[in-house]
Design a protein that fits this description.
Strand content: under 5%
Largest sheet: none
Number of domains: 1
Structural class: mainly alpha
Number of helices: 4
Number of strands: 0
Order of helices and strands: HHHH
Shape: elongated
Low-confidence stretches: none
Distance between the termini: 17 Å
Radius of gyration: 15 Å
Mean pLDDT: 89
Keywords: Membrane, Transmembrane, Transmembrane helix
Length: about 90
Amino acid sequence: MRTVLRVAGIAKVLTLAIMLGNLATVRLDPVGSVLGPVHGILYLVVVVLSLLQPIPVGKRLLGLVPGIGGLLVLRASRDRAPDETPPGTYW
């Protein structure tokens, strides 16, 4: 699940960067029309996967941060102490 979260988080950042680059330069409408919904779906995937991580709730909520939320959750889950959240505890 962490691998999927990592891929979705990186893809979310890339789609955001491409959309902002398009907005700042050529403003091609098809780019926004395609990448906007893709970015939105990636946001939802990151939020759901973040909430399913076996880390404290406060760290899981980092997934709601626009743009880099998934990457923040991955970093927070890497930094957690082994006994901070018992295995299998999601809420």
